[in-house]
Amino acid sequence: MGQRIATVTSARGARIAYAVAGAGPPLVYVSGWLGHLELSWALPAERAFFEALSDGRTLIRYDKPGCGLSTAAPGGADGPGGADGPASYTPADELDALEAVVGAVVGAAGSPRFDVMGISLGAPVAVAWAATHPETVARLVLYGGWPRGADVAAPAIQQHVLGLVRQHWGLASDLLTDVFAPDADAATRTAFARYQRESATAEMAGAMLAMAYTIDVLDLLPRIAAPVLVVHRDRDRAAPLEQGLRLADGIPHARREVIPGRSHLPYIGDTRPLTRVVREFLGLPKKHRGAAPTLTPRQREVAALIAQGCTNREIGERLGIAERSAEAHVERIRYRMDFRSRAQIAAWYAATAGAD
């Protein structure tokens, strides 16, 4: 199951990258803090989660302005490798990006109403969209969210984390990986920490985290008219369960589901309870298709060398084959894994420690 990536320019001038996978009625996915469409597709656990959502749905994801493959509006951040990030990031930036993607994909398909799923910070953003665009939302799924960011952690903790992100992004990404994904294996944790750093600059990450701590949609909760499912893990280390329950209590007739687990990231830990309840709520069979693609032993050798930063010529020299043969192996890996870049191959290899 592949994903197709394209871009659209928002009303504010941001260039928003979005990915489409699967087939069926549209499901717009509003991600959490940071993201990168290509690297997330290379992490086996995250990709498996997306494939579970896209079996029977057209899953639409996007990178936030200034993150991953997206760039911010003029005067803002250019994301990794670009200009310094903005001094602030607001819910208006989030909704601007979401509106652009909805118009480009859902609007073009002629679907007046669609399902929306908000994860972590994406949950209050999805609430804001559903409250202000009620005619567009068929069903709303909220996972690991909160209605008021100021209540997620004590002020002293917020300031400590923000300062660490802005001043020591490498150390902060490792720390936040421990908070977000305590159940991940060592290889996945290492890959995710690197994935965060490659998704955004320290300035951009800090600005978005600051917004996560200040966003407030409490007053919007009673305005939600669509059927709503609120899911939260009982021992979530990043967003306490009480925040998810508060979110559900404020929305008329919202269905709440508390599932076991302590990882905040939806694709880490036992994902089956989450995917089952979400698919059931969306009117899909609880079971879904999908199997992780595999590589041949030779392709795994090539992937390992790519992860080491080897060029095609160096791969050929190391394996005793012609440079053109090495190039052909790389292209077969990209085709087989539905990857667009060598960076994705390297990220996949790091996350799996060389195993399929």
TrEMBL record:
Coiled coil: none
One annotated GO molecular function: catalytic activity
Entry superkingdom: Bacteria
One Pfam family linked to the record: Abhydrolase_1
Organism in which the protein naturally occurs: Paractinoplanes ferrugineus
Protein name, as recorded: LuxR family transcriptional regulator
GO terms, biological process: regulation of DNA-templated transcription
HTH luxR-type domain sequence ranges: 288-353
